[in-house]
Design goal:
By secondary structure, this protein is mostly helical. Helix content is about 50%, strand content about 0%.
Length: about 150
């Protein structure tokens, strides 16, 4: 009986020692943390542009319409979240830029084209802004997806 208790105790000690007191936070399958580099002034400009032009549809915190996954009565999808909780992170910067510049693809949504209102720089700043809202694991997954597409 004593040997069973000793073996059980030994297993418990091994298991407890295997637990890392300070686990590494891995944001992607590669284990790399995605470094974000934003110019503070550009990020502030993107936030301002978002508040002026995008927030009325996508929400003040870029949370999107609550029913963004379901088409409305017109058959088009409501504004999705841009804060990392929706599908925006599945798209490259080029695709995001194109949708902002040219509007929703035909028949998919009611996003207007902003090419006559926003400059190329403002569009890029808006993307920087809403990407800055993405949780670290979402941003890291986006970075990894972009690298895998190259």
């Amino acid at each position: 009986m004593a040997s069973v208790v000793n073996i059980a105790f030994l297993i418990l000690v091994v298991l407890l020692c295997a637990c890392d007191q300070n686990p590494q936070v891995s944001s992607s399958s590669t284990g790399l943390m995605a470094e974000r580099k934003y110019d503070a002034a550009a990020l502030a400009a993107g936030e301002k542009t978002f508040a002026e032009h995008c927030a009325r549809c996508h929400g003040q915190q870029a949370q999107g319409h609550p029913q963004w996954r379901k088409p409305g009565a017109d058959g088009k999808y409501p504004p999705p979240p841009l804060n990392g909780s929706g599908h925006a992170w599945h798209h490259s910067r080029t695709v995001l830029h194109n949708v902002i510049q040219n509007g929703s693809p035909e028949g998919q949504g009611n996003m207007p084209a902003w090419d006559d209102t926003l400059s190329e720089q403002q569009i890029e700043q808006v993307i920087d802004y809403f990407q800055s809202l993405w949780p670290e694991p979402v941003y890291a997954a986006w970075i990894e997806m972009q690298q895998n597409q190259r």
